[in-house]
Amino acid sequence: MDYEVVLPAAGSGKRMGAGTNKLFLSLADKPILIHTLEVFEKDSKCTGIYLAVKPEEREYIQRLLNEYNITKVKGLPNGGKERQHSVHACLKVMKDVDIVLVHDAARPFILQSVIDRLVETAYEKGAAIAGVRAKDTMKKVREGIIVETVEREDLWAIQTPQAFRFELLRQAEDLAEKVGFLGTDEAMLVERLGHEIHIVESSYENIKITTKEDLIFGEAILKNRQL
Ligand code: C5P
After folding, report:
1. Which residue positions does UniProt flag as site: Positions MEP for the nucleophilic attack (predicted)?
2. Is pTM beyond 0.90 here?
């Protein structure tokens, strides 16, 4: 079951405070972006990668792709102001495929087994997203005061990849663009079409490298994998 993947990589990484795109920072021996790309480069079911990039970073990224022998990239469109715009830019240059995965370039630790289950479920049901069960007690807080303790049993922390039948995601993205709706993930846009979305249990290792501490966690995850 083949698929293509969209990797938004055009963020500014303000919360990292590195003064550069956080995806260019090294984890162990290579840039975060390369760790992520290599997952899909190695997966024989992945037939194409689309990377949304900042125009001023395209040349550098192209050099990285050559240096690390990443061969599956079919498109490097300009990203947009928000992540959703970057994903949309990729969908616009893609040809028809059955299944598309959207995955944050800043999540280098995604497991192959999770990708496999997402692709399978998207083929069968149309839409599937990765997530993990909430570990902490969850409360709703307003103006510093607890207003509700939310039943943890029903709560999941949502990650990427998110996998969809290509036509379903394109329809959801086109509608969102038309009405000016901005979601925090692709699933939110598909939910608005009333389509059922399935959850695939992922791993707590699949962190999004966001702040400086995440680099420490990331190094630890890599070290643990080498044991
Ligand atoms: O900032 P954050 O880490 O939440 O962004 C998630 C992913 O989306 C990152 O890989 C980032 O590069 C990408 N992004 C993008 N275009 C934006 C904002 C974020 O491609 N305008």
Report:
1. 152, 208
2. yes
